[in-house]
Amino acid sequence: MVDEAECEPAQDADSKADEVRIPAGFGFGDAAISRCPGCAVWFFHIIAAFTEPQCSKKLQQTSQGHERSLTKTASYERVVTGPSLRPGNVRAGHLQTWYPEGGLNDAMNRKDHWEQVYKTKAPDAVSWFQTRPTTSLKLIEAARVDKDAGIIDVGGGASVLVDFLLADGFRKVAVLDLSAAALEHARRRLGKRADSVEWLPADVTTFQSPRGFGLWHDRAVFHFLTDKADRQKYVETLKRTLTPDGHVIIATFAIDGPLKCSGLEVARYDAPSLCTELGADFQLLEQLEETHTTPWDTTQKFSYFRFHRRKRAA
After folding, report:
1. Which of 102, 157, 229, 287 would be a feasible disulfide site paired with 182, CB 3.0-4.6 Å?
2. Closest by alpha carbon to 99, among 120, 118, 119, 78?
3. Does residue 157 contact residue 179 with C-beta atoms inside 8 Å?
4. What DSSP character marks residue 92?
5. Chain centroid to CA 284: how far?
6. Domain 134-309 -> CATH class
7. Cα(303)–Cα(169) distance, rounded to whole angstroms?
8. What's the pTM value of the predicted model, to 2 decimals?
9. Ranges for all domains in the chain classified under CATH 3.40.50.150
10. pLDDT tens-place string over residues 92-125
11. How far is CA 276 from CA 232, 271, 282, 284, in A?
């Protein structure tokens, strides 16, 4: 099933109905998570009998005077509660990770979230899916990098960009993603051609590249880094990984783009704000706007930026 609420539009998050659903397949029968009116607490309402045979242990917890009861099953990994916690986007039959106010700043939590996404959804059933990454390919062509310069697709996951790069004759192509499940989708799709790609299951904020790359491509990773420290680590990785005369292509939600994606908060960028994040080492050469149409015919506004690494003064 396609998740029609995968990415939320640019609107006040508090104006939405504060209820999400949990499917019976996760061992909770028919359950809902609601927000207590007048307080910042999310809690479970169990509205039907538990139907799973593996139900074993009742958990009772209280948060600001609100008691909640649920049954832990083998298929549910953990429960998180507190006065300032939000649930991930639990809609259309998918249970996603809970995360603290401010986003997934912990690397393991980020990995858990994206593994869950790609283990429960087909690659073409997520809002960011593209049949052809037209804008990315246009900017890569404009960079005029050598076929052997090396291209790393950061957060490439199950994206088809790698397919087009191989078809265009690029060699030394690498795909980095936090989710091993996402990379496996791409490997299976490529078949024998996957052997010519370097697959890197890693967190970009801690990644240590085995070699330099002449072009760094990132469509929709940077905007998930809502914590300043994570953005600084991203830029440090970029500088370590990119060759001295390398090119950078980063796509984020535009200033008037969605506020959330995959249940996570995002940061939206224009040219001045992204240039500030990357610093003086990178010169902005080009900016393109794209209105992306999701698999269920909603639209999202992206901004694409192409940079060139400035040469250091002798």
Report:
1. 157
2. 78
3. yes
4. T
5. 24
6. alpha beta
7. 27
8. 0.67
9. 134-309
10. 333 233 333 334 445 558 778 778 877 888 777 6
11. 11, 9, 10, 11
